[in-house]
Design a protein that fits this description.
The chain is of the alpha/beta class and 246 residues long. It has one domain: Rossmann fold (3-Layer(aba) Sandwich), CATH 3.40.50.1360. The chain is built from eight helices and ten strands. A seven-stranded parallel beta sheet has the order 1-10-9-6-2-3-5. It is globular. The N and C termini lie close together (8 Å).
């Protein structure tokens, strides 16, 4: 595990984009797992800037969504796909056939999960997974209590996540279930990038770095991954010790 601390959110985001580009430049047909939410937005903006300015060819990149709310897809304002379309896919002009995403409006949610796993297998695995960290230690919609052996699945959403998730919507939503890549799915990715920023994430970052691995704190089940880097700004890193910086 590595911990990279940026002086500011912007410098953290630049480091994330630089590391991503360096890691995947030699991969023929890279598969990226992308998280929605506020934290990765800066990374995506920097990535878009570098791709456009340096004329980096991403026509061989493939994208897979980390998660989606049950009952929603990209047509729903506030959904995970909606935000990623606006923050990443459209600015990068990613072709629709290179984006694989859970359809939370499907009549068969388990089939959506199985199809995602089949696609990952077909592509030879996820090369890079970009992840955020929830206030309760969740990653994707792997909520406290999620078993580490689970692959993509339909998840019951924790009360804290339901409350925090309302910020993405204009009107109050029922956010009781979601579709998500599982902890086992993420463990098999080649490179995990776990991002957190701001004072509000300082306490959970400290807890994740110091706690024993436990399903009650899902992120702890990933930090033993063979190649994981935790990207923080100075505020999110405020409570961790120098030793934990690595």
């Amino acid at each position: 595990m590595q911990v990279a601390v940026g002086e500011t959110y912007k410098s953290m985001s630049e480091k994330c984009a630089d590391d991503l580009l360096e890691f995947i430049q030699s991969i023929k047909d890279p598969l990226l797992c992308t998280a929605s939410g506020d934290t990765p937005k800066g990374m995506y903006a920097e990535l878009i800037k570098q791709v456009q300015e340096k004329k980096i060819d991403i026509s061989n990149w493939h994208f897979i969504g980390l998660d989606e709310w049950a009952g929603m897809n990209g047509t729903d304002e506030g959904s995970c796909r909606y935000h990623l379309d606006n923050d990443l896919f459209r600015p990068l002009q990613v072709a629709e056939d290179r984006i694989i995403f859970f359809d939370g409006r499907s009549n068969n949610l388990q089939a959506q999960c199985d199809g995602i796993e089949d696609y990952i297998h077909l592509m030879g695995g996820i090369d890079v997974a970009i992840l955020g960290l929830g206030m309760n230690g969740h990653v994707g919609m792997n909520e406290p209590g999620t078993l580490p052996e689970l692959y993509s699945h339909v998840a019951d959403i924790d009360a804290m996540t339901q409350a925090v998730g309302q910020k993405y919507f204009k009107n109050e939503q029922q956010l009781t279930k979601g579709l998500t890549l599982g902890l086992a799915t993420l463990q098999e990715a080649s490179f995990l990038m776990l991002l957190a920023n701001g004072n509000k994430k300082a306490a959970i970052i400290k807890k994740v770095l110091e706690a024993d691995a436990s399903p009650q704190l899902p992120a702890t089940l990933l930090i033993t991954h063979k190649k994981i880097c935790i990207y923080l700004d100075k505020e999110a890193a405020a409570l961790i010790t120098k030793n934990e910086h690595g």
